[in-house]
Amino acid sequence: MSQGYTPAQRWLHWIIAALILPMILAGLVMVQSGLPRGLQNALFIGHKNIGTLLLILVTLRLVLRLRRGAPALPDTIPTLQRRIAEASHAALYALMLLLPLSGYIRVRAGGFPIEALDKLGLPSFVPRSDTLATAAKTVHEYGGYALMALLLAHIGAAIHHGMRRDGLWARIWPPQG
Ligand code: HEM
């Protein structure tokens, strides 16, 4: 078990946080009907391409987390709270992976572009299939709601620990370590 998150882990945490929140907002807005076409296109393009970048960043973060672990929680944290923290962090990782993956599958199986990957000449890794696209769309939508609920709980817990000044913030902030 390590003593603190590494600067790479901290930077990744804050970069991913700064990208995921606008991604959720863009996702919710861009599916509304009646939006000006130009705005909707821009939101879709931003959402698909930044989402794909997030898939890479989250994978990197997960690899670091598995190799490097997490710093031990202070002894003052009760066992039940520890278990809840561990389970919710595991669920956050799972959803942070599931969202960009299901988004990628929804778009590629539906036969749509991902502009940055297309420019790089990267082919689709999933077959064209309307059934697969529809299933991925459902997973993406409900996964998005689950992620929003967990993020709210996560941010609530962070504010709680910040107000108690129990040292948990120092594990992840400032990003440079
Ligand atoms: C962490 C990354 C991501 C988050 C948090 C996220 C979140 C969301 C949310 C909240 C919605 C609205 C769902 C609804 O109410 O219908 C949405 C829709 C959508 N997302 Fe994502 N998304 C992510 C990554 C991606 C990626 C990587 C792609 C594609 C490359 C993508 C493509 C789409 C598409 C096409 C929709 C519209 C769904 C439809 O109606 O067909 N998303 N996303």
Give a structural overview.
- This protein is mainly alpha-helical and 177 residues long.
- The protein has 5 helices and no strands.
- Helix 1 packs antiparallel against helix 2, helix 2 packs across helix 3 and helix 3 packs antiparallel against helix 5.
- 15% of the residues are buried.
- The two termini are 17 Å apart.
- The protein has a single domain, classed as Fumarate Reductase Cytochrome B subunit (Up-down Bundle).
- The structure holds protoporphyrin IX containing FE.
- The site of protoporphyrin IX containing FE has 25 residues, from helix 1, helix 2, helix 3 and helix 5.
What labels describe this entry?
5 helices, mainly alpha, Fumarate Reductase Cytochrome B subunit, 177 residues, binds protoporphyrin IX containing FE
Share of helical residues? over 70%
Structural class by SSE content = mainly alpha
CATH class: Mainly Alpha
- Strand fraction equals under 5%
Low-confidence stretches: none
Major beta-sheet overview: none
Quickly describe the structure.
The chain has 5 helices and no strands. With 177 residues, the chain is mainly α. It has one domain: Transmembrane di-heme cytochromes, Chain C (Fumarate Reductase Cytochrome B subunit).
